[in-house]
TrEMBL record, chains A, B:
Alphabetical UniProt keywords: Oxidoreductase
PANTHER family to which the protein is assigned, alphabetical: DUDULIN-RELATED
InterPro entries membership: NAD(P)-bd_dom_sf, P5C_Rdtase_cat_N, STEAP_metalloreductase
Pfam family, one: F420_oxidored
Species of provenance: Caldivirga maquilingensis (strain ATCC 700844 / DSM 13496 / JCM 10307 / IC-167)
Name used for this protein in its record: NADP oxidoreductase coenzyme F420-dependent
Amino acid sequence: MSLRKMRIGVLGTGEVGQAIATKLVELGNEVRMGSRSRDNEAARNWARSNGSLASHGTFRDAAEFGEIIFNCTNGLYSLDALKSAGYENLKGKIIIDVANAVDFSSGEPTVIMPEGKSLGERIQEAFPESKVVKTLNFVSYRLMVNPGLLGGEIDMFVSGNNKDAKQLVTSILKEWFGWRTVVDLGDIRAARAMELLVPLWFRLWENTGTDLFGFKVIIKK
Amino acid sequence: MSLRKMRIGVLGTGEVGQAIATKLVELGNEVRMGSRSRDNEAARNWARSNGSLASHGTFRDAAEFGEIIFNCTNGLYSLDALKSAGYENLKGKIIIDVANAVDFSSGEPTVIMPEGKSLGERIQEAFPESKVVKTLNFVSYRLMVNPGLLGGEIDMFVSGNNKDAKQLVTSILKEWFGWRTVVDLGDIRAARAMELLVPLWFRLWENTGTDLFGFKVIIKK
């Protein structure tokens, strides 16, 4: 599959949103970065720095604009952000959920899973007419769009209920972002396994002193 | 460090306990397998099949016997098993905690963490005079004592509060079991990150059709 250029909404103005939105523009896509308020400074600066394909607006503006949507908001507030983006604006669309809901208050980063449910699942439940694909949430924003920084040896996972959506996202990961191995973990409940990698991520970050690491699954041939 | 032979208690008679106990005997250690009752059939059969270095008894018998203790019980009942082994029999000793507390009732394997605390932490809290080291819990029992089945490329983690204990366990993992890379993730709270790998483990098992896989952390040089 060779991907055509698209209009893409990126929700969130942090390191993750900026890294993904910038890469998407570099690839020739039209990207609108969404945030809580229309005059968000980070979003305005990003749009100003990234040429005519880059624009910014509210969550709603970005969701209306995008044919597909990246959720790069803080996972603790993602459901609120997506609700303010508007159910109708997300209907039928792929939501690529990169977010993590992490509580740092105890000192040990804790993934929030009300009733055992991952953020990816909760988004899919709240937006049943959208196609949620969980991915990228367990690597540094620096590797998300450039895994080749490590020599391209690391694996990425996807999970979600819609096969076509996972297929498109897999193509985006491979053709646009440079991932070589993308493993389909199954339905959206597998987002639990992906979000629960975050505590290990933080321990390894502390331990290695760098955020430039990833995981390779070695399977018996 | 070259390890001397030891007396070792292995709590639990399942696949994990059998694999570890058998390997330890093969290496020339005296091993007592412990279970709830003295006449446990699996333990009796194991002892009968493994020669004069192998014996069996209650959790208490095995804990009294061992200079170090492997907890290979079902994590949902590990605290009960260790309590019945006796506080005084575990005092001052290393408890190598290989167990996972997993609830399968929802269909999606769910790691049980009351108040956010891992099994490893809860054991350390219940036995403050023992030295708990969490390890091995996120690979198949077949790989625990023979990671070379995959070519030896995969990583093992340890966590725990006592550095000397982690050092000894690291030597056991390397010299006896054949692990090449053992990464110290820090204090026992890191057992959370290790236990939370279990949902991913089950998804990959389902996905790949084999339990012969492990993780390699690729770090930017």
